[in-house]
Amino acid sequence: MTVDFEQRDEFLKMSLFEPSICFQCGTCTATCPWSELLETPMAVRKMIHQAQLGVMPKELLWFCTTCKMCEERCPREVGIVKSLLAMRKIAFKKREIPTEFERMLWNVLEQGNPFGDSQSMRENWARNLDVKDAKKGVDVLLYVGCSVSYDPRLQKIARSLSTILDSSDISFGILGRNEICCGDSVRSTGENAFLETLIEENVRNFKSTGAKKIITISPHCFDMFIDLYKNYGLETEVVHYTQLISELLSNNSIMMPNKLNKVVTYHDPCYLGRYHGIYDEPRNILEGIKGLDFVEMKDSKENSLCCGGGGGRMWLETEPDHRFSDIRVKQSSEVGAEIMLTACPYCIQNFEDSSKVTGTNMEVKDLSEIVAQAIGCSVE
Ligand code: SF4
Ligand code: SF4
Hints:
Elements: H1 5-14, H2 27-31, H3 34-37, H4 44-51, H5 69-73, H6 80-93, H7 99-111, E1 132-133, E2 140-143, H8 146-150, H9 152-167, E3 172-174, H10 184-189, H11 193-209, E4 213-216, H12 219-227, E5 237-240, H13 241-250, E6 263-266, H14 273-276, H15 280-287, E7 293-294, H16 324-334, E8 339-342, H17 345-357, E9 363-366, H18 367-375
Parallel strand pairs: 1-3, 2-3, 2-4, 4-5, 6-7, 6-8, 8-9
Helix pairs in contact: 1-6, 9-18, 13-15, 16-17
The structure holds iron/sulfur cluster (2 copies).
């Protein structure tokens, strides 16, 4: 193998020298869930090792869902995801990215969302609700995110959360048609210059509302704001809605009088669990709902198997026998759950598809939807 010194130096700089502490044990390769599904295994250790010599991986690089399972087990705490994203940045510079990403990037540039839907439709989910315009000034800003704003199924999550906040007397606002993508999908492509512009525009937008707290629905937006936005001047407190609801319940600011006699399980989204250690809050919420029988599914908490949607995989084709979400839905069914709960829009989309494909017909819900039900709010 010929060493490409220039590319090697670029990779080491972009990965912040994370791989330099790797001692080649191979735990990451053995841990990566793709190794069981792909004919050519996702050789994570080898990919990192070769990148240190300036040789970049090609197709396999785009399979990574950035689930962080490998990092969870790495004995040296190597920033494996950051290293893989550094490889994607180099691939982007050489314009060697999947074509599906090109369309998605144009959509974010032109309409502020990856789907290319009109910016003016972004607030349609709130049409019959009395939600404040954050541009007029608010203490609490609800950042809705792209999938939840545009997907008719996922819009129900925003409406559920909105009614929960109303019942707790939290006065909040949304940016509506002025809200734009958080940039999570852009980050996955390895694009950096446009990502920076996007972040700067969002930070300006958020600051203009005067909000002291930002609530996010998607764990991916949450991670972007916590992980990246701080470097661009965002000082506002950012919480995921599961943290907020858990807090509201513990100080009796919301009541859940309705009894729901159902067996439920909970899937830990990677970007809430492994990324931010939010494992207890969702479970505390479920514990507070009368009548619920909560069962842990296989591979919960730190061992949660990714739904397959992270790392930009939502925009790429996944072969029918390569779907982690199929495995996850079956695991829910195996523990006798009637409802599979989670707290991430990507997970909901993938699990609902898998529920039909696998024939389990598992009901899939977001935590906010079951909380709204327990409170007694009717949400359409
Ligand atoms: S698990 Fe960590 S130390 Fe082991 S090969 Fe992978 S990156 Fe290197
Ligand atoms: S982040 Fe997940 S998908 Fe990516 S290499 Fe690590 S274990 Fe595999």
